[in-house]
Amino acid sequence: MHGWVVFDKPLGMTSTQSVGKVRWLFTAQKAGHGGTLDPLASGILPIALGDATKTVPFTMDADKDYIFTITWGESRDTLDAEGEVIATSDVRPSQAAIEDVLGLFRGRIEQVPPKYSAIKVDGKRAYDLMRGGGDVELKSRPVEIFALKLTDYSAETASFQMTCGKGTYVRSLARDLAAELGACGYVSLLRRTRVGGFDEANAFSLDDLEKLCHRGGVLEALRPVQSVLDDIPVMIVTENEAIDLKHGRAIASSLSQDQSDDGETPSWILAVMNDTAIALCHRRGGEILPKRVFNL
Q1: Is 38 considered catalytic here?
Q2: Which of 135, 150, 170, 296 is deepest in the core (most CB within 10 A)?
Q3: pLDDT tens, 234-277?
Q4: Where are the alpha helices (DSSP H) in 56-193?
Q5: 85 and 138 share a domain?
Q6: Considering the entire predicted model, what is its pTM?
Q7: Are 58 and 32 in contact (CB under 8 A)?
Q8: Which domain holds residue 26?
Q9: 175 and 271 co-located in one domain
Q10: Domain holding 176: CATH number?
Q11: What CATH number does residue 248 fall under?
């Protein structure tokens, strides 16, 4: 069983639990996900099965869309509704005030991840250290926010749509936005609506997958391994070349330099035979070297 499932994760389920459930439904030997979603977040969680796990990094690097709501008046230690209240404020930002500061959070910005996050500190997850009574200091890092707009406003809440690059935390954005407005706030609703080419239009809920499973139709929810490789140059190979690649041997390149390499860092090339992915490769001079071989 090899391919991608665009899972619409429900509230309350962890990303790890989601992977385990989908892996069980599809009786897959290997499984992984393309970007963690918090238990209190819902939405698109791409799950790779079998050899699709070799393409997970391409999904991790993909742009993502979110919708989220900030509730004003309280700050919480987890930056979402799950946490304990650590500060309160009577400040309720106006719609105009919110619109005025949004520009500060568009483009390439520095962001400190939440202390309750999966980032590792000295080999341990930050959230495990926090829940164990410790404390962590996380460094800021650059993230990119391509679009951010206010979509709904009330006296107590503000809702937003955002498109961002990898590594961006919505909870951190909400924390920093509230601080810029001199208010307290936390994320009370969070939903991811797109990861790269995977969106709500091609997603399946847990109930959908269970129904497909019961009638033997789970393959209807399985997308090809190369679904996340649309931006990668494709090289069509012969049967003999496919055999060489699968055995780890380099083959001659049929791609021009500008199709496969920017001259500075090697870029990926997807070798394909009869519409089946054979290997992810790098170019070296006039040769194509297999780096991740698929057994499809």
Answers
A1: yes
A2: 170
A3: 999 999 999 999 999 999 887 765 554 444 445 789 999 998 99
A4: 56-60, 95-101, 126-131, 170-180
A5: yes
A6: 0.89
A7: no
A8: 3-62+197-227
A9: no
A10: 3.30.2350.10
A11: 2.30.130.10
